[in-house]
Fold this sequence. Notes:
With about 220 residues, this protein is of the alpha/beta class.
Amino acid sequence: xxxxxxxxxxxxRASDGLWENHRVEDVATPEAWNKNPELVQRFYNERRKTxxxxxxxxxxxxxxxxxxFYDVSxxxxxIDDLHERAGSSNVIHxxxxxxxxxxxxxxxxxxTEYFHIYGDELNIDKDKCPDGYPLRPHVVWFGEAVPxxxxxxxxxxxxxxxxxxxxxxxxxxxxxxxxxxxDECQAYYIDPQAEHKNLASQYQCIAQTATLGMQSLxxxxxxxx
Length: 225
Protein backbone atom coordinates (compact mmCIF):
# COMPACT_ATOMS: atom_id res chain seq x y z
CA UNK A 1 0.00 0.00 0.00
CA UNK A 2 1.24 3.48 -0.85
CA UNK A 3 -0.04 6.79 0.49
CA UNK A 4 0.93 10.23 -0.78
CA UNK A 5 -0.18 12.99 1.53
CA UNK A 6 -0.04 16.73 2.16
CA UNK A 7 -1.27 18.67 5.15
CA UNK A 8 -1.71 22.06 6.83
CA UNK A 9 1.81 23.53 6.77
CA UNK A 10 1.94 26.19 4.08
CA UNK A 11 2.35 24.83 0.57
CA UNK A 12 5.54 25.20 -1.43
CA ARG A 13 4.05 27.65 -3.92
CA ALA A 14 0.94 29.71 -3.22
CA SER A 15 -1.41 31.03 -5.91
CA ASP A 16 0.58 34.29 -6.02
CA GLY A 17 3.83 32.44 -6.71
CA LEU A 18 5.23 33.16 -3.25
CA TRP A 19 6.26 30.90 -0.38
CA GLU A 20 6.10 32.59 3.03
CA ASN A 21 6.28 35.98 1.24
CA HIS A 22 9.42 35.02 -0.70
CA ARG A 23 9.74 34.40 -4.40
CA VAL A 24 10.36 30.68 -4.79
CA GLU A 25 13.21 31.51 -7.17
CA ASP A 26 14.94 33.43 -4.36
CA VAL A 27 14.88 30.66 -1.74
CA ALA A 28 14.31 27.30 -3.45
CA THR A 29 16.74 27.00 -6.36
CA PRO A 30 20.46 26.21 -6.69
CA GLU A 31 20.89 29.70 -8.15
CA ALA A 32 19.40 31.23 -5.01
CA TRP A 33 21.91 29.35 -2.87
CA ASN A 34 24.81 30.46 -5.05
CA LYS A 35 23.63 34.07 -4.95
CA ASN A 36 22.66 34.40 -1.30
CA PRO A 37 23.22 31.26 0.80
CA GLU A 38 22.66 33.17 4.04
CA LEU A 39 19.12 34.09 2.98
CA VAL A 40 18.33 30.53 1.89
CA GLN A 41 19.74 29.05 5.09
CA ARG A 42 17.78 31.53 7.20
CA PHE A 43 14.59 30.80 5.27
CA TYR A 44 14.84 27.05 5.84
CA ASN A 45 15.78 27.52 9.47
CA GLU A 46 12.45 29.31 9.92
CA ARG A 47 10.58 26.56 8.05
CA ARG A 48 12.28 23.97 10.26
CA LYS A 49 11.13 25.77 13.39
CA THR A 50 7.56 25.76 12.07
CA UNK A 51 7.70 22.05 11.31
CA UNK A 52 9.16 21.21 14.71
CA UNK A 53 6.28 23.07 16.33
CA UNK A 54 3.69 21.20 14.26
CA UNK A 55 2.11 17.89 15.21
CA UNK A 56 0.92 14.97 13.06
CA UNK A 57 -2.79 15.20 12.31
CA UNK A 58 -5.41 12.46 12.31
CA UNK A 59 -4.68 11.55 8.69
CA UNK A 60 -1.02 10.94 9.51
CA UNK A 61 -2.06 8.77 12.44
CA UNK A 62 -4.52 6.74 10.38
CA UNK A 63 -1.90 6.08 7.71
CA UNK A 64 0.45 4.87 10.42
CA UNK A 65 -2.29 2.71 11.95
CA UNK A 66 -2.76 0.91 8.63
CA UNK A 67 0.56 -0.82 9.32
CA UNK A 68 -1.35 -3.04 11.74
CA PHE A 69 -3.22 -4.45 8.74
CA TYR A 70 -1.05 -3.91 5.64
CA ASP A 71 2.51 -3.52 4.44
CA VAL A 72 2.49 0.28 4.07
CA SER A 73 4.91 2.55 2.25
CA UNK A 74 4.39 6.31 2.33
CA UNK A 75 5.52 8.43 -0.60
CA UNK A 76 5.44 12.10 0.32
CA UNK A 77 6.24 15.33 -1.49
CA UNK A 78 6.44 17.11 1.86
CA ILE A 79 9.77 18.01 3.43
CA ASP A 80 8.61 17.53 7.03
CA ASP A 81 8.94 14.46 9.24
CA LEU A 82 5.33 14.31 10.44
CA HIS A 83 4.74 10.85 8.98
CA GLU A 84 7.67 9.49 10.94
CA ARG A 85 6.49 11.21 14.11
CA ALA A 86 3.05 9.68 13.58
CA GLY A 87 4.68 6.25 13.52
CA SER A 88 5.01 5.37 9.84
CA SER A 89 8.07 3.15 9.45
CA ASN A 90 8.70 3.31 5.69
CA VAL A 91 8.61 6.85 4.27
CA ILE A 92 10.03 7.86 0.89
CA HIS A 93 10.71 11.61 0.78
CA UNK A 94 10.59 12.63 -2.87
CA UNK A 95 11.53 16.23 -2.16
CA UNK A 96 13.82 15.57 0.78
CA UNK A 97 13.56 16.07 4.52
CA UNK A 98 14.19 19.43 6.15
CA UNK A 99 15.28 17.69 9.37
CA UNK A 100 18.33 16.44 7.47
CA UNK A 101 21.23 18.23 5.78
CA UNK A 102 23.65 17.46 2.96
CA UNK A 103 26.75 18.94 1.37
CA UNK A 104 26.35 22.04 -0.78
CA UNK A 105 29.30 20.93 -2.89
CA UNK A 106 29.26 20.00 -6.59
CA UNK A 107 26.68 17.37 -7.60
CA UNK A 108 25.00 17.66 -4.20
CA UNK A 109 21.61 17.36 -5.86
CA UNK A 110 22.34 13.72 -6.68
CA UNK A 111 23.66 12.80 -3.25
CA THR A 112 21.78 10.46 -0.93
CA GLU A 113 24.28 11.05 1.90
CA TYR A 114 22.73 12.98 4.77
CA PHE A 115 23.51 14.44 8.18
CA HIS A 116 21.04 14.81 11.04
CA ILE A 117 20.27 18.33 12.23
CA TYR A 118 20.16 18.53 16.00
CA GLY A 119 18.00 21.50 16.89
CA ASP A 120 16.32 23.78 14.40
CA GLU A 121 19.16 25.69 12.73
CA LEU A 122 22.04 25.25 10.34
CA ASN A 123 24.84 27.81 10.59
CA ILE A 124 26.32 28.75 7.23
CA ASP A 125 29.77 29.36 8.77
CA LYS A 126 29.99 26.59 11.36
CA ASP A 127 28.00 23.63 10.05
CA LYS A 128 30.04 21.95 7.34
CA CYS A 129 30.38 18.46 5.91
CA PRO A 130 33.66 16.49 5.93
CA ASP A 131 34.64 17.85 2.51
CA GLY A 132 34.47 21.41 3.84
CA TYR A 133 31.34 22.67 2.10
CA PRO A 134 28.58 24.30 4.17
CA LEU A 135 25.67 22.02 4.93
CA ARG A 136 22.44 22.86 3.12
CA PRO A 137 18.93 21.53 3.73
CA HIS A 138 18.40 18.02 2.39
CA VAL A 139 15.60 19.14 0.09
CA VAL A 140 15.06 19.09 -3.66
CA TRP A 141 15.04 22.57 -5.14
CA PHE A 142 13.48 23.63 -8.43
CA GLY A 143 15.72 22.57 -11.27
CA GLU A 144 17.29 19.70 -9.30
CA ALA A 145 17.04 15.94 -9.74
CA VAL A 146 14.65 13.84 -7.64
CA PRO A 147 16.96 11.07 -6.38
CA UNK A 148 14.16 9.08 -4.70
CA UNK A 149 11.94 8.98 -7.79
CA UNK A 150 13.05 5.55 -9.01
CA UNK A 151 12.50 4.00 -5.58
CA UNK A 152 9.03 5.55 -5.47
CA UNK A 153 8.24 4.37 -8.99
CA UNK A 154 9.11 0.77 -8.13
CA UNK A 155 6.98 1.00 -4.99
CA UNK A 156 3.99 2.33 -6.94
CA UNK A 157 4.20 -0.36 -9.60
CA UNK A 158 4.16 -3.06 -6.92
CA UNK A 159 1.24 -1.62 -4.94
CA UNK A 160 -1.97 -3.62 -4.50
CA UNK A 161 -3.71 -0.59 -2.98
CA UNK A 162 -2.70 2.97 -3.83
CA UNK A 163 -4.01 6.01 -1.96
CA UNK A 164 -3.36 9.54 -3.20
CA UNK A 165 -4.13 12.24 -0.63
CA UNK A 166 -4.31 16.00 -0.97
CA UNK A 167 -2.13 16.69 -3.98
CA UNK A 168 -2.91 18.84 -7.02
CA UNK A 169 -1.54 16.25 -9.49
CA UNK A 170 0.10 19.00 -11.55
CA UNK A 171 3.73 18.97 -10.31
CA UNK A 172 5.89 16.75 -12.51
CA UNK A 173 7.65 14.39 -12.60
CA UNK A 174 6.03 13.35 -9.32
CA UNK A 175 2.45 13.62 -10.62
CA UNK A 176 3.27 10.97 -13.18
CA UNK A 177 3.46 8.35 -10.44
CA UNK A 178 -0.33 8.09 -10.35
CA UNK A 179 -0.23 6.59 -13.84
CA UNK A 180 2.26 3.87 -12.94
CA UNK A 181 -0.06 1.63 -10.92
CA UNK A 182 -0.89 -1.82 -12.24
CA ASP A 183 -4.24 -2.61 -13.85
CA GLU A 184 -5.14 -4.73 -10.82
CA CYS A 185 -4.33 -2.02 -8.27
CA GLN A 186 -7.16 -0.74 -6.07
CA ALA A 187 -6.74 3.05 -6.24
CA TYR A 188 -8.21 5.99 -4.32
CA TYR A 189 -7.86 9.77 -4.51
CA ILE A 190 -8.77 11.80 -1.43
CA ASP A 191 -9.06 15.56 -1.86
CA PRO A 192 -11.87 18.13 -1.37
CA GLN A 193 -11.69 18.79 -5.13
CA ALA A 194 -11.19 15.17 -6.13
CA GLU A 195 -12.24 14.39 -9.69
CA HIS A 196 -11.01 12.32 -12.62
CA LYS A 197 -9.68 15.30 -14.59
CA ASN A 198 -6.05 14.19 -14.19
CA LEU A 199 -6.73 10.60 -13.17
CA ALA A 200 -7.72 7.34 -14.81
CA SER A 201 -11.21 6.02 -14.13
CA GLN A 202 -9.50 3.25 -12.16
CA TYR A 203 -9.36 5.66 -9.21
CA GLN A 204 -12.22 6.04 -6.77
CA CYS A 205 -12.49 9.75 -5.95
CA ILE A 206 -13.30 10.71 -2.37
CA ALA A 207 -14.15 14.43 -2.25
CA GLN A 208 -13.29 15.03 1.40
CA THR A 209 -10.50 16.50 3.48
CA ALA A 210 -7.50 14.30 4.23
CA THR A 211 -8.72 13.56 7.75
CA LEU A 212 -12.34 12.77 6.89
CA GLY A 213 -11.51 10.90 3.71
CA MET A 214 -8.78 8.87 5.36
CA GLN A 215 -11.07 7.95 8.24
CA SER A 216 -13.73 6.67 5.85
CA LEU A 217 -11.21 4.73 3.81
CA UNK A 218 -9.48 3.35 6.91
CA UNK A 219 -12.79 2.00 8.16
CA UNK A 220 -13.47 0.45 4.77
CA UNK A 221 -10.04 -1.13 4.36
CA UNK A 222 -9.93 -2.59 7.88
CA UNK A 223 -13.56 -3.72 8.19
CA UNK A 224 -12.82 -7.35 7.32
CA UNK A 225 -9.32 -7.57 8.72
